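Re: How this chain folds, sequence and tokenised backbone to follow

Filed under: protein folding, tokenised backbone structure, sequence and structure records.

Contents: The amino acid chain and a row of whole-number tokens, matched residue for residue.

Body of memo: The sequence and its backbone structure tokens, given next.
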Amino acid sequence: MAIPYLCILIAALLPYLWVAISKASGQRYDNRDPRGWLAKQENPRAHRANSAQLNAFEAFAPFATSVLMAQFAGVGAHLITYLSVAFVIARLFHGVFYVSNRFMLRSLVWAAGFACVFALMAMSVYRIAA
């Protein structure tokens, strides 16, 4: 179960990657007023990277919960590992596509990540209900 836990750690850190890109994409960052700084940015990449950060935070809790649910429900370790790695890969590509403004690909990999979370939760419910 080490790999799924590592995937949880990576997913927890991904938002900070995107916010670092956001801060590096705009004018000189002002830590005294981060939201005001972002509002003044004219570079769309800074806004897209910030949006990727927010979306990564939103996706983290359901993912971490789904991994733990699956583990506690007794879902096979290989399935948890496979879906956890697939989620992290999808989320990495999601951020890359978000920052690079490839909206169709971004939506596709978002759906793939969501499918991983849904599958883990559904398998957990099935195992407990059975």
